[in-house]
């Protein structure tokens, strides 16, 4: 059984797109589609998502009816007493949605975050794991 994982993005991200073209949250922050790596292994799937400026308390993860939604709320990083004169990147929030296979065990999903990189471990359900069947001589 292979694990199916497709991604859905509300707006395509293009180089040079402004925050207004990408979308905004109610608090006026830009919404970006974070970069993600998806690796499949015999026990399940590992998803790694880059969300710079987002802490573990600012991440919301939902898995409902095969739809995995990841949201991260970016923190503003303006030192007190400074005024931004020039910036090469925008700060904002992150959102990414994936459709996952039915053979994953939603109750055992684990998430960890380190240095702005979120790692999700999505294990396969025991019933979905491949098993070896011995053949006996008749």
Topology:
Layout: E1 5-8, H1 19-22, E2 30-32, E3 36-41, E4 44-50, E5 59-64, E6 67-72, E7 92-100, E8 110-114, E9 117-123
Parallel strand pairs: 2-7
Antiparallel strand pairs: 1-7, 3-4, 4-9, 5-6, 6-7, 8-9
What does this structure look like?
With 138 residues, the chain is mainly β. It contains one helix and nine strands; from the N terminus they run βαββββββββ. The protein has one helix at residues 19-22, and strands at residues 5-8, 30-32, 36-41, 44-50, 59-64, 67-72, 92-100, 110-114, 117-123. The strands form two sheets. Strands 1, 2, 5, 6 and 7 form a five-stranded mixed sheet that branches. It has a four-stranded antiparallel sheet with strand order 3-4-9-8, with no helix packed on it. β3 (36-41) and β4 (44-50) form a beta hairpin. The longest helix has 4 residues, at 19-22. It is elongated, with a radius of gyration of 19 Å. The two termini are 29 Å apart. Residues 6-21 have low confidence and may be disordered.
Oligomer: single chain
Query: Helix and strand succession?
Result: EHEEEEEEEE
Tally of alpha and pi helices: 1
Percent strand equals 35-45%
Quick check: average pLDDT?
A: 80
Helix content: under 10%
The outline comes out as elongated
Short description:
The chain is mainly β and 138 residues long.
Question: Which terms summarize this structure?
Answer:
mainly beta, elongated, 138 residues
């Amino acid at each position: 059984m292979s694990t199916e994982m497709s991604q859905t993005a509300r707006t395509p991200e293009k180089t040079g797109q402004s925050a207004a073209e990408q979308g905004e949250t109610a608090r006026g922050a830009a919404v970006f589609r974070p970069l993600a790596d998806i690796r499949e292994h015999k026990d399940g799937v590992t998803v790694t998502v880059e969300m710079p400026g987002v802490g573990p308390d600012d991440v919301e993860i939902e898995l409902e009816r095969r739809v995995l939604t990841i949201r991260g709320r970016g923190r503003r990083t303006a030192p007190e007493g400074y005024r931004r004169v020039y910036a090469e990147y925008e700060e904002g929030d992150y959102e990414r949605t994936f459709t996952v296979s039915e053979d994953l065990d939603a109750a055992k999903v684990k998430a960890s975050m380190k240095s702005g990189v979120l790692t999700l471990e999505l294990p396969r359900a025991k019933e979905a794991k491949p098993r070896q069947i011995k053949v006996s001589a008749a």
